Amino acid sequence: MQIAINAERLASELNQLASFSDAPAPAVTRIVFTEADLRARAWLKGRCRAAGLVIREDAIGNTFAQWNGSSPDLPAIATGSHIDAIPNSGRYDGTVGVLGALEAIRSLQENGFAPQRPIELLIFTSEEPSRFGIGCLGSRLLSGALDPHHAADLRDSAGASLEEVCRAAGFSGPLSSVCLPPGHYAAFLELHIEQGPLLERERVQIGLVSSIAAPASLKIVIEGEGGHAGGVLMPHRRDALAAAAEIILAVERLALSTGALDTVATTGLCDVFPGAINSIPSRVTLGLDVRDTDAARRDALLRDIEQTAQAIAQKRSLSVQIRLMNADRPGHCEPAILDALRRACEQQRVTFMPIVSRAYHDSLFMSRIAPTAMLFIPCRAGVSHRPDEFASLGDICAGVRLLAQTLANLAQ
Ligand code: HGY
Ligand code: MN
Ligand code: MN
To answer: How many domains does the chain have?
Structure first.
């Protein structure tokens, strides 16, 4: 089956989706359940309905758009990703996997393909950690990886709970109703930009993801003593930001000291109180993101970071509280689904290579309840989570064509 992708339609939709943003183009900011996100969701549901898909939403706003098959009671073949975007980011992270899946479905429809199994497009809520501090909230709850009671109490920076924000966004029902059992889906596939430089450097069209790095995040609160920037002499200070600076550098040194390139650690958040130039910082809150393809090595690094932060605080007579927000195990893709993708690559004469995902994705959690695989397309210079994130229409269409072929092969 020669699958023709409507590149113009897909390009136009990627541009339209990027316009739902709280940042000026080319940047995209689309935080979960903000006006921009809700408008994007409404627009996207309209595009799915126009393709004849039947829509349902669960209590946290995960959105399911189904193309019924001739055997509707069979477990569906699922595919999808996310549309939320961190502040000042790009237009391809997540959206390629959502609009690409919609285009794959429409292309199969327009090519006269009729699936036996249903094919279901999933749009996961809150893949990014921006608002509630933990990523993949929708897929965590869907796969049973997050306790619904704990999730309901997660709060954003304004103190609103996830439960309150979900209700205000129009989603109802207990978060405990989100979970789906293993076997609900026959397979799950996610198309995504690589968010790394390998495919472009190796001039390979498709990356077949073997495993997904294990993410962990820490919140570190350092409490010192505030005071007048002029009146308090240096020997008498307990400056929380100076201690935080020492901790941030220690995090970098400890990550490098594992000697493994797969170990990465980032201090992405640093909130200073009271935040006045002439007032000694009395409290600093740090947000750390720590990942590795090897969970044991990552956990050893987390322990080292905790011990070192405590030692720095003690040396400076400050207090420090460290909270582990999440520490997930790595995800492994299903060999049978990877084989299906490999066969489709050979069918379509597309170059491919195995690859490790250093970014986490909803697939990390979907792999707990369904045979899961990810396929990557190149992104320019590996750049992502920046306004200059870019994937060429040709590469996107090659990924969509491969996804369509694999969905068709699996849905028969
Ligand atoms: O941070 C990540 O890996 C993903 O982009 N949320
Ligand atoms: Mn992202
Ligand atoms: Mn993503």
So the answer is: 2
Same domain, yes or no: 275 and 348 = no
Q: What does each C-alpha distance from 149 to 129, 138, 360, 407 come to in angstroms? A: 18, 14, 24, 35
User: Which of 327, 345, 364 is the C-terminal boundary of a domain?
Assistant: 327
- Going by C-alpha positions, the residue among 211, 231, 233, 228 that lies closest to residue 361 is 211
Exposed e or buried b for every residue in 283-312, given b needs 16+ CB within 10 A?
bbbbbbbbbbbeeeebbebbebbeebbeeb
Tell me the whole-structure pTM to 2 decimals. 0.94
Nearest atom within ligand 1 for CA of residue 360: 3
2 inside domain = no
Atom of ligand 1 nearest to the CA of 127: 6
Q: What distance in angstroms lies between residue 217's CA and the mean position of ligand 1's atoms?
A: 12
Question: pLDDT, tens digit, for every residue of 166-180?
Answer: 999 999 999 999 999
Establish whether residue 127 lines the binding site of ligand 1, counting it when its CB lies within 6 angstroms of any ligand atom. Answer: yes
**Residue range 186-204: mean pLDDT, rounded:** 98
End-of-domain residue from the set 327, 344, 366: 327
Ligand nearest to the CA of 82: 3
Mean pLDDT, the chain, as a whole number?
97
Beta strands 119-124 and 214-223: pairing type?
A: unpaired
Ligand 1 atom at minimal distance to the Cα of residue 195: 5
> Same domain, yes or no, for 320 and 361?
no
Instruction: For residue 80, give the ligand nearest its CA.
Output: 3
- Which of the 8 DSSP states describes residue 155? B
To the nearest whole percent, how much of the chain has pLDDT over 70?
100
Identify whether 59 is part of a domain: yes
CB 398 within 8 A of CB 205: yes
Q: Where residue 2 falls among pLDDT bands split at 50, 70, 90?
A: confident
Ligand 1 lined by 194 (C-beta under 6 Å): no
The tokens describing 327, both together, are 């520490």
Q: Residue 197 belongs to what domain range? A: 7-212+330-411
**pLDDT per position as a tens digit, 52-77:** 999 999 999 999 999 999 999 999 99
280 and 314, same domain (yes or no) = yes
- What residues form DSSP beta bridges with 30? 85
